[in-house]
Fold these 3 entries.
Entry 1:
Amino acid sequence: MIRPAALALSVAVLLVVAGHAQQNNISADASAVRAAVTNYCEAYYTGDAQRMEQTLHPRYSKHMIHGDIPVREKTGAQMLQEIRKNGPADMPAAKKTEQVSVLDIAGTIASAKMVTPGWTDYMTLVKVNGEWKILSVVQRIDD
């Protein structure tokens, strides 16, 4: 027969171990989300359509907001075509930077924010077959 104190101790140990395992999964997911967003941005900077394609969900959609210009949209296919056509971004190397923040992760969905010298992206990602893919982007372009 198990004593109440031993049972309580066993349950406490299991909860601590489970909590650490969950924290490790969240940390690994946060790193993977950050990597997907960084690869997306660096693919744009370098004009690497293949690298960008690896970050995009098949249903990718981007909405761009720029001052008084009506909201514009792009699909993943349009993004990739634009990268292939235009090549590396025409901007000074000093402006090819990004700050990525993982805002939240809930199971197989995540949200992230990326700030660059010229725009801010809010992104929704989904985990597909163990890989984080960018599903949607809302971009505010700075003037």
Entry 2:
Amino acid sequence: MTDPRLARALIEIQKYYGQRLAGAALFGSRATPRSRADSDWDVLLVLTDDEPIRRSLYREWDARLAPRVEALLPGSSPHFVHVPAGEDGPSSLWLEVAMTHEILSDPTGQLSACLRRLRSLIDAGRFEQRAAHGLAYWRSAR
């Protein structure tokens, strides 16, 4: 983690979510050398399986965490997820993260293992990235 603002934001995120947070990763342009000063901060927040993914997580973020995180990382965008269970149905979000990411927190190694597995499936040709009307999407190559 090269940006000290990111490290401080991660501390805030970990303090707030505590044991509910199974891992975190930066993805998108900020995880690449092509990011710009005005690039947003896409943060994958992997929650434990006993913490349901629900719309209210985003309201909770906006009300309680965004003021502290946004002060450090303007334009931060949380993406709440669980680790996908099988290899046949990862979402486009997971495939995108597998291509370019920076692991921020992964105490059990589950997040890293998942992203390695997904990347190997992409490299093996199981999934391919396409574009329609200028928008990228992923699909099974089978």
Entry 3:
Amino acid sequence: MTIEELQKQIAEELKIDKNSLDSSSSENPLLMQKYINLFLRESNVLNKLQSQFSSLYKDKTIFYKTDFKYVPDNFRELNAFVEGDEEMIAIKEKIANQNSIVKFLSDTISTFKDRGWAIKNMIDFRRFMAGE
């Protein structure tokens, strides 16, 4: 799932129907749970990508130290080869994108917590205006 797809979906689900605050209030915990589950799933994907990165880093280091046509003289040269490798760059991009998704979901969960308070405040304000 891309961030754009998540943004669209979340924008729809964050809307509060002012005419049915009771249903909005009751669906809020379910929506929070949905995004907590999604957060956990996407966090696991991130962890797997980070493990793949570590493994690839090790493999690339060994390759550039032993099998490459030019053997680096020092750690800086070795690191330049490893960090500049196309596979390393690709997995770093995947990790960065996955980090963005996980951060976005974490922020979304906080927003749903705030949504619950907003609904409560709307209900309280209506009660106040009704003289209760």
